[in-house]
Specification:
By secondary structure, the chain is an alpha/beta fold. Helix content is about 30%, strand content about 20%. The chain has one domain: 3-Layer(aba) Sandwich (Rossmann fold), CATH 3.40.50.
């Protein structure tokens, strides 16, 4: 499936209603403390979405998005990965903790945070379907996770993925080689100009249930494309909701 668009009217896009979040702490594989905001307003049997941020940012990337996903019937966890700093006034505590522990905070070092977080969510929070969603570098890492552990998640959503890891000694097909093993549903979304950054990754995905979205406008990089302040955010939401509803 090469293109996915559902012309759905989403009234909730103009509102942000939240019952708040709880700060949770998870141990990464190397012992670094991961911080995350838990948006759990439904029974544990509903689908659960884990949200990972883009470079230089924090779990604050999802301050607006997570409550809307709650309103759509999902529980969520917005996670601080160790490669990041702050956004929307929210500091990345995992980055701070990693620095204190003298641990590396490059993009690739955050993969162990993703592994540990998913294991924790599966053990304590999610009894239903599990979806992992990433933004920029973390969207590449969630695609890698879905390929490396093809039985562990039910769907993967990647906003603006790419082969971002060559500067860290990884091959130019680092993500593509893992994506070839993805069996779950997969969706890639990005700014219009970014298609060449992820097209080979998309073509490598072996799932029968895969889709991508490029806006008619220039769009935005990463999951901030969902933010209400951008005039074309509804297109991204319509595609995301359509994809999730088909799981």
């Amino acid at each position: 499936m090469k293109y996915l668009f559902f012309p759905i009217f989403i009234s909730l896009l103009n509102t942000v209603n939240s019952e708040g979040s709880d700060l949770v702490k998870i141990k990464s594989i190397d012992g670094v403390e991961i911080t995350a905001d838990l948006y759990r307003v439904h029974p544990d049997t509903v689908p659960f979405i884990i949200l990972f941020h883009q470079a230089g940012w924090s779990r604050g990337e999802y301050l607006e998005t997570a409550p809307k996903l709650n309103a759509l019937g999902y529980n969520c966890l917005a996670v601080d990965l160790r490669s990041g700093k702050s956004v929307n006034g929210i500091e990345n505590f995992t980055f701070i903790n990693a620095n204190k522990a003298l641990k590396e905070t490059k993009y690739i070092d955050a993969f162990q945070d993703i592994e540990a977080t998913i294991a924790h969510v599966k053990k304590f929070f999610a009894q239903g379907k599990l979806i992992i969603l990433g933004s920029s570098y973390s969207s590449s890492l969630v695609l890698k996770y879905a390929g490396d552990y093809p039985k562990n998640v039910n769907a993967v959503v990647a906003f603006s993925p790419g082969e971002y890891f060559k500067p860290f000694g990884k091959p130019t097909d680092f993500i593509q080689s893992s994506a070839a093993n993805i069996e779950c549903a997969a969706l890639i979304l990005s700014a219009r100009s970014e298609k060449n950054s992820w097209w080979d990754i998309y073509e490598a995905i072996n799932s029968d249930n895969k889709a991508f979205y490029l806006p008619e406008t220039s769009g935005n990089h990463g999951s901030r494309a969902l933010w209400q302040k951008f005039t074309d955010h509804k297109g991204y939401w319509e595609v995301l909701i359509g994809f999730l509803s088909r799981l």
